[in-house]
Amino acid sequence: MRVAITGAAGQLGRQLVVAFEADGHEVRGFSHDDLDITKPAALFDWDPDVVVNSAAWTDVDGCARDPERAMRINGEGAGAVSAVAAACNAMIVQVSTNEVFDGTLDRPYHEDDDPDPINAYGRSKLAGEIAVVAANPRHLIVRTAWLFGPGGTNFVTKILAAATHAADAGQPLRLVSDEIGNPTWTPDLAAAIVSLVTQDDRRNVVHVAGVPAVSRLAWAQVALEAAGIRVDVDPVALATFERASTPPLRAVLAPSAGVAEMDWRPASVECARGLPAKPTA
Ligand SMILES: NC(=O)c1ccc[n+]([C@@H]2O[C@H](COP(=O)([O-])OP(=O)(O)OC[C@H]3O[C@@H](n4cnc5c(N)ncnc54)[C@H](OP(=O)(O)O)[C@@H]3O)[C@@H](O)[C@H]2O)c1
Q1: Which domain covers residue 171, as residue numbers?
Q2: 19: which of 55, 150, 180, 186 lies 20 to 30 Å off by Cα?
C-alpha cells in the first residue's frame, strides 16, 4: 500500500514511518514543513491508499490560550486531510486522544462512551474526529494517551532531569498523584496501527493505549528506580500546578478488544536506562 503520514517529524509520526516501512509498504512521511494539514492538497499528488493523520497542535496549554487556532488545526485541518483522502479513495486514520473524555467516570472509557472534553485541546480533537467521520466513510479513529517514545524528550526523560535537579538541590521532587492515565510507548502504538490497517479491521473507533493505568507519580517511580536515582518524593494534587489547560483527572482508556496488550513498564525502564527500547506489541 501507499501510506501517507502527516506530522511525520513528531513523536508518533516518526514511529509510524518506521512501522509501515518495516511492514513492506511504500511510505511517504510529511513533516509540518512538507505539508500543512490546513492546506493538504499536496496529498493528491501522491495518490495514497491510506492516510494516517498524526499531525496536531499538541501544546495543550497553547490550545487553551488560543482555542481558535486549536480548532483550525486539530479540528478543521483533520477534516481537510480526511476529505483529500476520500477524494483519493484512501482510508483515513485519525489519531485522537483520551482528552475527548471529561475524566470523571469511575471506570476506564470504552469506544462508545460519550465524549465530553473539558479543555480546548480536547474540544479541538473531538471536532477533528467529527470532521474526519463526516468527510470520509472509510475512517478509523484511534484514541490513545500519554505518548512517550525513543529519542528526544518525553515524560520519562523530563522526570529524570527534574529528579536529578531536585536531588542536587536537596529538595523533594513534586509528583502528581491524582492524575491517572495510560502511558503508551509510540513504537507499540505504531505497530498496533499498522496491524489495524493491514488486517482490514472494520471498526470505526478503537482505543489503543498502554496498561496498566497509573498515576503520574507511579509512572515516575518506575523510571526513577530503573535509573537508580534516589530523591525524596512529595506527592501533590494536579491542581497544585497552575496551568492554562485543565487536564481530565481520570481519562483512562479501556484498550479495545483484539488490540495487542501494551505494557508500558519495560519500555519505561529501558528508556530510563538510556537503552534503545523495542516494540513490545
Ligand atoms: N502526546 C501525547 O501524549 C498524545 C496523547 C494522545 C493523543 N495524541 C495525539 O497523537 C498524535 C501524535 O502526537 P505526538 O505526541 O506525536 O505529537 P507531536 O510530537 O507534537 O507531533 C505532532 C506533529 O504535528 C505537526 N504539526 C502541528 N501543526 C501542524 C499543521 N498545521 N500541519 C502539519 N503538521 C502539523 C508538528 O510539527 P511542529 O512541531 O513543527 O509544529 C509535529 O511534528 C496527535 O494527533 C496527538 O493529538 C498525543
Answers
A1: 148-180+212-272
A2: 180
